[in-house]
What does this fold into?
Amino acid sequence: MKKIAFLFLIILCSCNKEKPKETLKEIPKEIPEEASYFKQIKANDVKMPEAVYGDWLYSRKEKGQTFDQYFRSKHIVPTADANIIYIRPIGNFNALQKRQIQLTNEYLEIYFQLKTKTLNPIANDVVPNSARRMSAEGHEQLLAGYLLNDILKEEKPVNRIALMGLSELDLYPKPEWNYVFGLASYRDKVGVSSIYRLQDGKLTSENFNLCLSRLLKISSHEIGHMFGLHHCTNANCVMNGTNSMDETDRHSIRLCSVCQRKLNSCISYDNKKRLTDLEKYFKRNNLTDGFDLMKKDLGVIQ
It folds into this structure.
């Protein structure tokens, strides 16, 4: 029986796990408004349910990552020369899929409070026959490693801080695996994922919002890793590890208070503005779960 890759990404270069020297960085003293913000939204953190068979944490003993560990770790920080997140579509996308990519671009720009741009699509035929195959289910698949190493890693768009490829077709990591949701090199700040499995077969107006929610969760999660955030074990959070699409659906689209503090220490955005922008985005696109979560956070800080 062939293996199925339930993990969203196979990590080529895991986050730096070397124990940092305490003298390298001093944990910053937060201004009163910031400290108050994180304490207030902590009230809305939801405890993670106990892992059951098949869940990410059922067979993995992850210790998580404290704010102090994150702050002292080596991770990218936006600079004048590296401050734009890029999306590179790969394949032939229909009107609904193009709309999902557009909405993902809008979301990532709000979520990370950094300029985000979608590059022109590249055709599937950039992948040679040696890096593609027909699946047992009868649809075409592309070799994820080829897209990552031979195409995306070679791209250097201006002021790139992170680059995520989005493939129209299904992906596989090696011959003995049925499929993989995606592949990434966090060291190179590059990843590729497939929208094929997010669509439950075919993207329609009926499943559009469910598929969009999955894409927003996965893209923000993986780019969050590129900014140095580890899997969260603090609360139900978009940075939780996931073992299946069902588990992804159960995870929150919200960053918990600890992970929000990490990201804010890296990018230094206005916390209230970000929440307000996210609330408007979710409302505008009829994503009820996300809207309710942002409204709840805004309610405790006002």
The chain has nine helices and nine strands.
